Fold this sequence. Notes:
Layout: E1 2-4, E2 7-9, H1 12-29, H2 32-43, H3 45-56, E3 61-67, E4 70-78
Antiparallel strand pairs: 1-2, 1-4, 3-4
Amino acid sequence: MLWLGGQACWTPEQALAWIGRRAGHVADQLDDQLGRPVRAWIQDHAEHQRASGQLARGITYSLVVCDGSVQFVLAATPGAFDPDGDSAP
Length: 89
């Protein structure tokens, strides 16, 4: 299972799809110049493959987007199953 800010995903691909959706929301809030690299990440299949492998090996994957002094961090963290569903392990 992968934890995404309180939301659980069961596969690296689901986690990357979530990051991609959120990255699109972030890109929409940025001007064109800053949003361009985020949109490029969304289309970067080689990076998604690398990220998927990283998650499958139990390593957190983060996408960091900077807008001046503001940072957007979209991350998936592999974790154990929480039977109560109350919190990330």
